[in-house]
Amino acid sequence: MFAGGTILMPDVAYGRYPRGGRTLMLRRAGLDGIGGDGTITIGAMVTLSAIASSGLEPLAPAAADIADPEIRAQATVGGNLCAPPGRETPRGDLQAPLLAVGARVRSAGPGGERTESVEQFLDRGEDEPRLVLAIEVDRPRRASYLSQRRAHAHSYAVLSVACAETADGVRVAAGGAGPRAVRLSAVERALASGAAPDEAATDAVDGVAPRDDALASAWYRRTVLPTLVHRALEHFFEGG
Ligand SMILES: Cc1cc2nc3c(=O)[nH]c(=O)nc-3n(C[C@H](O)[C@H](O)[C@H](O)COP(=O)(O)OP(=O)(O)OC[C@H]3O[C@@H](n4cnc5c(N)ncnc54)[C@H](O)[C@@H]3O)c2cc1C
Prior knowledge:
It is built from 10 helices and 9 strands. The chain has helices at about 10-15, 50, 60-65, 70-75, 75-80, 95-100, 120, 185-190, 195-200, 220-240, and strands at about 35, 40-45, 105-110, 110-115, 130-140, 140-150, 155-165, 170-175, 180-185. The structure holds flavin-adenine dinucleotide.
Protein backbone atom coordinates (compact mmCIF):
# COMPACT_ATOMS: atom_id res chain seq x y z
CA MET A 1 0.00 0.00 0.00
CA PHE A 2 1.53 3.33 -1.02
CA ALA A 3 0.00 6.27 0.86
CA GLY A 4 2.25 9.33 1.43
CA GLY A 5 5.35 7.24 0.70
CA THR A 6 7.44 8.90 3.45
CA ILE A 7 8.44 5.46 4.78
CA LEU A 8 8.16 3.52 1.53
CA MET A 9 10.18 5.88 -0.71
CA PRO A 10 13.30 5.85 1.50
CA ASP A 11 12.94 2.03 1.67
CA VAL A 12 12.82 1.90 -2.14
CA ALA A 13 15.82 4.26 -2.39
CA TYR A 14 17.89 2.10 -0.01
CA GLY A 15 16.91 -1.15 -1.70
CA ARG A 16 14.97 -2.37 1.37
CA TYR A 17 11.71 -2.77 -0.54
CA PRO A 18 11.21 -6.30 -1.89
CA ARG A 19 11.27 -6.44 -5.71
CA GLY A 20 8.28 -7.82 -7.57
CA GLY A 21 4.77 -7.95 -6.18
CA ARG A 22 2.14 -5.28 -6.68
CA THR A 23 1.71 -1.83 -5.18
CA LEU A 24 -1.67 -0.28 -4.46
CA MET A 25 -1.45 3.51 -4.95
CA LEU A 26 -3.93 5.19 -2.58
CA ARG A 27 -3.54 8.87 -3.54
CA ARG A 28 -6.76 8.97 -5.59
CA ALA A 29 -8.73 6.38 -3.65
CA GLY A 30 -11.12 8.99 -2.20
CA LEU A 31 -10.00 8.26 1.37
CA ASP A 32 -8.99 11.83 2.27
CA GLY A 33 -12.17 13.13 3.93
CA ILE A 34 -12.42 14.16 7.58
CA GLY A 35 -15.60 15.17 9.36
CA GLY A 36 -18.50 14.41 11.67
CA ASP A 37 -19.87 15.94 14.86
CA GLY A 38 -19.91 13.46 17.77
CA THR A 39 -17.97 10.74 16.00
CA ILE A 40 -15.27 12.04 13.68
CA THR A 41 -14.41 9.90 10.66
CA ILE A 42 -10.86 10.34 9.40
CA GLY A 43 -10.09 8.86 5.98
CA ALA A 44 -6.88 6.83 5.83
CA MET A 45 -5.34 9.32 3.37
CA VAL A 46 -5.88 12.40 5.56
CA THR A 47 -2.46 14.02 5.97
CA LEU A 48 -0.67 14.62 9.25
CA SER A 49 -0.81 18.38 8.57
CA ALA A 50 -4.62 18.17 8.37
CA ILE A 51 -4.66 16.25 11.68
CA ALA A 52 -2.26 18.79 13.24
CA SER A 53 -4.61 21.67 12.38
CA SER A 54 -7.81 19.77 13.24
CA GLY A 55 -7.81 20.72 16.92
CA LEU A 56 -8.69 17.10 17.71
CA GLU A 57 -6.99 16.26 21.03
CA PRO A 58 -4.71 14.38 21.68
CA LEU A 59 -4.08 13.58 17.98
CA ALA A 60 -3.38 17.17 16.85
CA PRO A 61 -0.36 17.85 19.11
CA ALA A 62 1.08 14.40 18.32
CA ALA A 63 0.79 15.00 14.55
CA ALA A 64 2.24 18.52 14.89
CA ASP A 65 5.39 17.05 16.48
CA ILE A 66 6.10 14.61 13.64
CA ALA A 67 9.00 15.43 11.29
CA ASP A 68 8.65 18.76 9.40
CA PRO A 69 5.96 20.59 7.37
CA GLU A 70 7.03 18.94 4.09
CA ILE A 71 6.77 15.41 5.51
CA ARG A 72 3.50 16.19 7.32
CA ALA A 73 1.96 17.42 4.06
CA GLN A 74 2.71 14.02 2.43
CA ALA A 75 2.43 11.57 5.33
CA THR A 76 -0.99 10.10 6.13
CA VAL A 77 -2.82 8.88 9.21
CA GLY A 78 -3.25 5.41 7.62
CA GLY A 79 0.50 5.17 6.93
CA ASN A 80 1.25 6.26 10.49
CA LEU A 81 -1.12 3.70 12.02
CA CYS A 82 0.38 0.96 9.82
CA ALA A 83 4.01 2.13 10.05
CA PRO A 84 6.18 -0.95 10.51
CA PRO A 85 8.31 -0.64 13.67
CA GLY A 86 11.56 1.12 12.68
CA ARG A 87 14.94 -0.53 13.32
CA GLU A 88 16.59 2.72 14.38
CA THR A 89 13.65 4.64 15.89
CA PRO A 90 10.06 4.09 16.98
CA ARG A 91 7.46 5.03 14.35
CA GLY A 92 3.73 5.50 14.37
CA ASP A 93 3.40 8.37 16.83
CA LEU A 94 -0.38 8.56 16.31
CA GLN A 95 -0.88 5.02 17.60
CA ALA A 96 -0.77 6.01 21.29
CA PRO A 97 -3.29 8.89 20.90
CA LEU A 98 -5.55 6.60 18.84
CA LEU A 99 -5.38 3.94 21.57
CA ALA A 100 -6.08 6.55 24.25
CA VAL A 101 -9.26 7.82 22.56
CA GLY A 102 -10.50 4.27 21.88
CA ALA A 103 -10.50 4.81 18.10
CA ARG A 104 -11.95 2.22 15.72
CA VAL A 105 -10.39 1.15 12.43
CA ARG A 106 -12.46 0.38 9.33
CA SER A 107 -10.50 -1.81 6.96
CA ALA A 108 -10.89 -4.10 3.96
CA GLY A 109 -9.11 -7.39 3.35
CA PRO A 110 -9.64 -11.16 3.32
CA GLY A 111 -13.18 -11.75 4.62
CA GLY A 112 -14.38 -8.30 3.48
CA GLU A 113 -14.79 -5.06 5.36
CA ARG A 114 -14.71 -4.86 9.17
CA THR A 115 -14.51 -2.36 11.98
CA GLU A 116 -12.46 -3.14 15.09
CA SER A 117 -10.66 -1.34 17.90
CA VAL A 118 -7.15 0.02 17.28
CA GLU A 119 -5.84 -2.57 19.78
CA GLN A 120 -7.36 -5.43 17.77
CA PHE A 121 -6.09 -3.91 14.54
CA LEU A 122 -2.51 -3.53 15.83
CA ASP A 123 -2.55 -7.05 17.34
CA ARG A 124 -3.64 -8.72 14.11
CA GLY A 125 -0.12 -9.81 13.10
CA GLU A 126 2.06 -9.17 10.08
CA ASP A 127 0.60 -11.98 7.99
CA GLU A 128 -2.86 -10.39 7.71
CA PRO A 129 -2.55 -7.44 5.32
CA ARG A 130 -5.55 -5.11 5.47
CA LEU A 131 -6.29 -1.85 3.71
CA VAL A 132 -7.28 0.83 6.20
CA LEU A 133 -10.22 2.82 4.88
CA ALA A 134 -10.97 5.14 7.80
CA ILE A 135 -10.53 5.70 11.51
CA GLU A 136 -13.47 6.66 13.74
CA VAL A 137 -12.85 8.76 16.83
CA ASP A 138 -15.26 9.97 19.50
CA ARG A 139 -14.07 13.36 20.72
CA PRO A 140 -12.77 12.76 24.28
CA ARG A 141 -14.03 14.87 27.21
CA ARG A 142 -10.44 15.90 27.88
CA ALA A 143 -7.02 14.73 26.79
CA SER A 144 -3.29 15.33 27.01
CA TYR A 145 -0.20 14.37 24.99
CA LEU A 146 3.47 14.59 25.92
CA SER A 147 6.59 13.29 24.24
CA GLN A 148 10.24 12.99 25.11
CA ARG A 149 12.46 13.72 22.10
CA ARG A 150 15.94 14.79 21.18
CA ALA A 151 16.47 18.32 19.89
CA HIS A 152 16.83 17.87 16.12
CA ALA A 153 14.95 19.09 13.04
CA HIS A 154 13.68 15.53 12.44
CA SER A 155 13.55 14.37 16.02
CA TYR A 156 11.65 11.13 16.48
CA ALA A 157 9.91 10.69 19.83
CA VAL A 158 11.91 8.49 22.20
CA LEU A 159 8.73 8.01 24.23
CA SER A 160 5.25 9.52 24.11
CA VAL A 161 2.21 9.34 26.36
CA ALA A 162 -1.42 10.13 25.50
CA CYS A 163 -4.30 10.32 27.99
CA ALA A 164 -7.99 10.70 27.23
CA GLU A 165 -11.25 10.62 29.15
CA THR A 166 -13.79 8.63 27.18
CA ALA A 167 -17.16 7.11 27.99
CA ASP A 168 -15.18 4.09 29.34
CA GLY A 169 -13.14 6.20 31.77
CA VAL A 170 -9.56 7.43 31.58
CA ARG A 171 -7.37 5.65 29.04
CA VAL A 172 -3.59 5.99 28.90
CA ALA A 173 -1.27 4.77 26.14
CA ALA A 174 2.45 5.02 25.39
CA GLY A 175 4.49 5.08 22.19
CA GLY A 176 8.16 4.06 22.05
CA ALA A 177 7.70 1.57 24.91
CA GLY A 178 7.64 -1.40 22.51
CA PRO A 179 7.58 -2.10 18.77
CA ARG A 180 4.09 -0.57 18.61
CA ALA A 181 2.18 1.71 20.99
CA VAL A 182 0.55 0.01 23.99
CA ARG A 183 -2.19 0.81 26.46
CA LEU A 184 -0.93 1.23 30.02
CA SER A 185 -3.66 -0.85 31.63
CA ALA A 186 -2.02 -0.95 35.08
CA VAL A 187 -1.98 2.87 35.17
CA GLU A 188 -5.62 2.99 34.07
CA ARG A 189 -6.61 0.49 36.80
CA ALA A 190 -4.72 2.48 39.44
CA LEU A 191 -6.48 5.71 38.39
CA ALA A 192 -9.87 3.96 38.40
CA SER A 193 -9.26 2.83 41.97
CA GLY A 194 -8.52 6.41 43.07
CA ALA A 195 -4.70 6.56 42.92
CA ALA A 196 -3.10 10.00 42.51
CA PRO A 197 -1.18 10.65 39.24
CA ASP A 198 2.25 10.13 40.84
CA GLU A 199 1.15 6.82 42.43
CA ALA A 200 -0.56 5.57 39.25
CA ALA A 201 2.50 6.47 37.15
CA THR A 202 4.71 4.06 39.12
CA ASP A 203 2.79 1.22 37.42
CA ALA A 204 3.70 2.52 33.93
CA VAL A 205 6.32 -0.13 33.16
CA ASP A 206 4.04 -3.08 34.08
CA GLY A 207 3.69 -5.25 30.99
CA VAL A 208 5.70 -3.02 28.63
CA ALA A 209 8.72 -4.29 26.72
CA PRO A 210 10.86 -1.37 25.56
CA ARG A 211 13.67 -1.98 23.05
CA ASP A 212 17.17 -0.62 22.51
CA ASP A 213 17.48 1.46 19.35
CA ALA A 214 19.57 4.30 17.97
CA LEU A 215 17.66 6.88 20.04
CA ALA A 216 17.74 5.31 23.50
CA SER A 217 18.26 2.10 25.44
CA ALA A 218 15.47 -0.03 26.86
CA TRP A 219 16.86 0.82 30.32
CA TYR A 220 16.49 4.57 29.62
CA ARG A 221 12.91 4.09 28.44
CA ARG A 222 11.97 2.02 31.51
CA THR A 223 13.49 4.70 33.75
CA VAL A 224 11.87 7.71 32.04
CA LEU A 225 8.42 6.31 31.24
CA PRO A 226 6.93 6.69 34.78
CA THR A 227 8.05 10.35 34.90
CA LEU A 228 6.55 11.08 31.47
CA VAL A 229 3.29 9.37 32.47
CA HIS A 230 3.19 11.37 35.70
CA ARG A 231 3.65 14.67 33.77
CA ALA A 232 1.09 13.72 31.12
CA LEU A 233 -1.44 12.88 33.87
CA GLU A 234 -0.75 16.19 35.61
CA HIS A 235 -1.43 18.07 32.35
CA PHE A 236 -4.53 15.95 31.87
CA PHE A 237 -6.01 16.66 35.30
CA GLU A 238 -4.95 20.32 35.37
CA GLY A 239 -6.54 20.86 31.93
CA GLY A 240 -9.85 19.32 33.02
C1 LIG B 1 12.54 12.72 7.96
C2 LIG B 1 11.42 11.86 8.51
C3 LIG B 1 11.02 12.04 9.82
C4 LIG B 1 9.97 11.25 10.34
N1 LIG B 1 9.59 11.46 11.65
C5 LIG B 1 8.59 10.68 12.16
C6 LIG B 1 8.16 10.88 13.50
O1 LIG B 1 8.67 11.74 14.24
N2 LIG B 1 7.15 10.07 13.97
C7 LIG B 1 6.55 9.12 13.19
O2 LIG B 1 5.62 8.45 13.65
N3 LIG B 1 6.94 8.91 11.92
C8 LIG B 1 7.94 9.67 11.39
N4 LIG B 1 8.35 9.46 10.10
C9 LIG B 1 7.74 8.34 9.33
C10 LIG B 1 6.53 8.70 8.48
O3 LIG B 1 6.66 9.98 7.90
C11 LIG B 1 5.18 8.67 9.21
O4 LIG B 1 5.08 7.57 10.08
C12 LIG B 1 4.02 8.72 8.22
O5 LIG B 1 2.80 8.96 8.89
C13 LIG B 1 3.85 7.46 7.35
O6 LIG B 1 2.75 7.69 6.49
P1 LIG B 1 2.83 7.56 4.90
O7 LIG B 1 1.48 7.94 4.38
O8 LIG B 1 3.98 8.34 4.34
O9 LIG B 1 3.11 5.99 4.76
P2 LIG B 1 3.74 5.16 3.56
O10 LIG B 1 5.23 5.35 3.51
O11 LIG B 1 3.00 5.36 2.28
O12 LIG B 1 3.41 3.69 4.10
C14 LIG B 1 3.93 3.24 5.35
C15 LIG B 1 3.41 1.82 5.66
O13 LIG B 1 2.02 1.86 5.93
C16 LIG B 1 1.31 1.01 5.02
N5 LIG B 1 0.07 1.73 4.68
C17 LIG B 1 -0.05 3.00 4.28
N6 LIG B 1 -1.33 3.35 4.14
C18 LIG B 1 -2.06 2.23 4.44
C19 LIG B 1 -3.46 1.94 4.48
N7 LIG B 1 -4.39 2.86 4.18
N8 LIG B 1 -3.84 0.68 4.83
C20 LIG B 1 -2.91 -0.26 5.15
N9 LIG B 1 -1.58 -0.05 5.15
C21 LIG B 1 -1.16 1.20 4.79
C22 LIG B 1 2.24 0.81 3.83
O14 LIG B 1 1.99 -0.42 3.19
C23 LIG B 1 3.61 0.85 4.52
O15 LIG B 1 3.91 -0.42 5.09
C24 LIG B 1 9.35 10.26 9.53
C25 LIG B 1 9.77 10.09 8.20
C26 LIG B 1 10.79 10.88 7.70
C27 LIG B 1 11.21 10.68 6.26
